[in-house]
Amino acid sequence: MSQLRSIKGTHDILPEHSNKWQDLEKIIHETCKRSGYREIRTPIFEDTRVFSRGVGEDSDIVSKEMYSWEDRDGTSLTLRPELTASVVRSYIQHNLGILSPIQRMYYMGPLFRRERPQKGRQRQFNQFGIEAFGSENPELDAEVISIAWNILEGYDLGEISTLQLNSIGSTECRNNYKEALKDFLRPNLNQLSDTSKNRFETNPLRILDTKSENERRLLEKAPLISDYYTDEDRAHFDSLQQFLSVMNISFIINPKLVRGLDYYSRTVFEFTSSALGSQDALLGGGRYDRLVEMLGGKPTPAIGFAAGIERFLIARESLGETIRPLNNNAYFVCLGEAGIPDVLSLSNTLRKAKINVVSDPLRRSLKSQMREANKSGSRFAIILGTNEIENKTLVIKDLKKGEQKIILQSDLTKFFKDLTS
Ligand code: AMP
């Protein structure tokens, strides 16, 4: 039979790497909680309409990347391709807006998009992100961006990432700008790619997102959205910049930065890193004041971001991070079957005292068990042989210093506790 393998674009996170995931996850949990954000966990699959309405029918995600299927009762279901729409669905369903005028949430988990796999782009990948509901004021934008910044710094990526910032104004501003952009592009329509020609009709702002060098050159002379801001748009963006500056958060303004989806307004931002190669986006976010209403809730301003966990790990690896061995306190070496009950009960006692200990279930020779103890990254080997069983003692070997001593079995927990006190 041919060997079964994971599906293209999906990856196993092997035990030797999961430590790194947990390190990052810890920073995310701690940083979010420090600013009053609490975790929300929504289902992995949803009614397809959550995404077709919440992300937009003509977005790449909905039009070509979703894993959707018809359930037995005929309902169309979809593996979540992003989390904002799910969080908003949940916010409306549970009336979270009436619990408190401001709701702050963060999330973490797997997403599914049928994209062409390459480095940093997978079909199942993981994101963390935050969503803050209930204020249209720029201090909330500054708070959300500062959390992204603090997580990047906490994970040592501050130096190798850049914050790009833009405002795409209010609906009024964007409608005027779209016309101006179309007027600018119309004489050159035949030079545009098929994708951009389609976007010209459906969502001309997204043409600014193009990766094509030709189109980028053409766009150099395009009108800028900033010339179409309303007074309120400008004041909002100016305040945000001032707030970021007082928090020592440096940014560059990228007037061509737009987020693909229709519902964004005003603030959009992205953190990129040169450590990533062609898929250089670490994190993207923006204000989405219309989305709650579009999904059937009361009009509620909101802002959030989503970040790719795999890309954080890739960027961090570029700093020369090596695989961290399992950091056990002790490895229990047992010589002879008679000692097995003692090893099991003593190990259990240690674990209850929060001491990490691994024992050997293969009944191997002293030499093999000591080799395993060294390989496991344990600081100590606890050795139980015939003499020790008789005398109710243990040999404790410090694997770093090479020293060893004999202690009473009844003093085992104390021995480890004294080390940490
Ligand atoms: P988006 O939801 O498309 O705005 O993406 C937010 C972040 O998720 C990006 O900045 C990437 O870091 C990450 N990301 C998006 N798509 C993928 C993918 N297919 N594979 C891995 N990471 C991704």
Write the layout of secondary structure elements.
Blueprint lengths: L14 H20 L3 E2 L5 E3 H7 L5 H6 L2 E3 L5 E4 L4 H10 L2 H4 L3 E10 L11 E10 L4 H17 L7 E6 L3 H15 L8 H9 L10 H7 L11 H16 L5 E2 L11 E8 L8 E7 L3 H4 L7 E7 H9 L12 E5 L5 H13 L4 E3 L6 H10 L4 E5 L1 H6 L1 E6 L5 E5 L3 H9 L1
Helix pairs in contact: 1-6, 2-4, 6-10
Bound molecules: adenosine monophosphate.
The site of adenosine monophosphate has 17 residues, from β6, β10, β11 and α12.
- Structural class call reads alpha+beta
Q: What percent strand?
A: 15-25%
Oligomeric state of shown chains = single chain
The overall pLDDT, averaged over residues, is: 93
The radius of gyration is: 28 Å
Helix content: 25-40%
What ligands does this structure carry? adenosine monophosphate
Task: Report how far apart the termini are.
Answer: 56 Å
Q: Sketch the major β-sheet.
A: 8 strands, mixed
Number of strands: 16
Return residue spans where pLDDT drops below 50 for at least 5 consecutive residues: none
Number of helical runs?
A: 16
Main β-sheet, spatial strand arrangement: 1-5-6-11-10-9-7-8
Shape: elongated
